[in-house]
Queue: 3 jobs
Job 1
Amino acid sequence: MKKVFILSVLAVFSAFAVSCKDNDDYSQIESVFATKTDSVKIPMDTMALGVTQEILVYSTFKKTCEGIYSYDYNYTNDSVRTIANFAYKTNDVCGDGTYVDGSRINFKPTKTGNYIFKFWTGKDAAGANTFLEKRVVVE
């Protein structure tokens, strides 16, 4: 009976010791940052009110250590939308080369008119934000 008790106590302490062990064998996100838009695909530049279309916003990432995290979609006013992709960077060593990935944004207008989409493409030499602009007409 004494051996069973000792083995039980050892098993419990072993379980606690293993459960407290840090597991650094997986990738961890170290940072999230805005990444420039390389290209945009808007299937319809003229669309009907009430229709939803998917806008694809592409950016380039380093292999094995970066990827698409999310996007930011801001209403500047009723007809202007400002969009930026956000990337993550992990603690993995970056591989050679790059790949392209992106965000899918569903746009369903609630009124007719001209909509201007401004996609963030980085900063110029003076540090000012630059944008790729696309127009969608809603009839």
Note: The mean pLDDT is 88.
Job 2
Amino acid sequence: MDIPEKESTLKKRRSLSFRIAKWWIPKFFYYTSFFIFGTARKKYHGKENFDQLVDNSQSIIVACFHQGILFLPYLLRHDRYGKRIAMVSTSPEGDYIADAMAMFGQSAARGSSTRGGKKALQVMKDMLNEGHNHEKAHHGLITVDGPRGPAHKVKMGVIKLAQDTGLPIVPFNWSAKPQITFGNWDQTILPFPFSKISVAYGKAIKVEKDTSDEKMEEIRLELEKQLKNCLDIVKGNSTIN
């Protein structure tokens, strides 16, 4: 059963200040993304792990740490990637994100792990499974340690989503020089315009339907290891295997 929206939340969504913010914040994020990420010089590591799947119209789940969330809509903005779906909070602030994603041609499965998250995961599963009946690939975009951490700790939701949909998980992370690192729980990163961005992709991870709980935990740890390795690569602390 759905949790009814609080009156205070409804009141906020009806307020003039919220409606004004909902109009300009997504547009600001969209155009600023092109200025910041569009002017950056980009270097890719292990991109064949991603390209060999999407170039063959294979639907996938793209997984990264919440720290790198700002680059995700821009990185996967091209329609050639098919339908792209991300989990977004049901909060009023989530409305800004959903509207910004729509400007990038992406869809939102609304919810979070703290309120309605189980429903959102089910919505995302249903949306991804629709891809089995379409020629156009359907990709899930997941920040595996969101929405509130702990940072760099993969949660089981992405593993269960891969099991239920049959889609492979492709991990990636990125870093930039120079960049701003915010002081929030995930230490969100934002490059300067004309920066150097390094992006690393890990190897695709498949989760079979009959995978045991013990094996699911092993896969979760493997994904966490690959994501941390990607982070080491983009920071220059490791090399691609």
Note: The first strand starts at residue 41 and ends at 45.
Job 3
Amino acid sequence: MPLADCRLIDLPRINDPRGNLTFIEGGRHVDFDIRRVYYLYDVPGGSERGGHAHKALRQLIVAMSGSFDVHLDDGRAKKVFHLNRSYVGLYVCPMMWRELDNFSSGSVCMVLASNLYDEDDYYRDYGRFIEAAKAA
């Protein structure tokens, strides 16, 4: 899939003096049923996360608190997205190498995933990912 298929998605925001609310509905705000939710937190300064691609998994990545950068690479083009709003998600399509870095103090990264965890869905070696991306 081309990098152009990955995009920022504005999520609904209900503003209220008592505190704002944002919600995400599978099949409505993302084009997949949400099968798994996980989040990264307490990431030490200077650390990186990710460093892999998925063969079929689709994801929505949201900075719930703080900020971080998401580096995407489809084997032909690269792009960096800076996430820092809890009402904006980054849709990441399959066959996209991703690396996350530049985590601010106290940041929380939430990921909504289209499938349950499956180790066979991963490319963890960049060279093998590039070979598969070029063959697609």
Note: The radius of gyration is 15 Å.
